[in-house]
Amino acid sequence: MDSLVLKSPAKLNLFLNILKKRPDGFHDLETLFERISLFDTIRIKSISASSKIQIKCSHPHVPIG
User: Fold this and answer.
1) CB contact set of 14 (below 8 Å; sequence gap of 6+)
2) Is residue 50 part of a domain?
3) Is residue 55 part of a domain?
4) What element of type H or E holds 21?
5) pTM over 0.85
6) Which of 13, 25, 37, 65 is most buried, with most CB under 10 Å away?
7) 3 and 46 in contact (C-beta within 8 Å)?
């Protein structure tokens, strides 16, 4: 595989409330969003003919094919 094209769905943030800062430096968030029918197209292409593209992920909600 020398290139891979993926669609990344868009979302509309209806509100975002930034809460307390956690010990790890990040903040807790409260948010509500809705998916909409727009998307970005992501194209990944290898930089040489001899290399290949591999995407690995163990999370069940991330498409890898």
Assistant:
1) 31, 32, 33, 34
2) no
3) no
4) strand 3-21
5) no
6) 13
7) yes
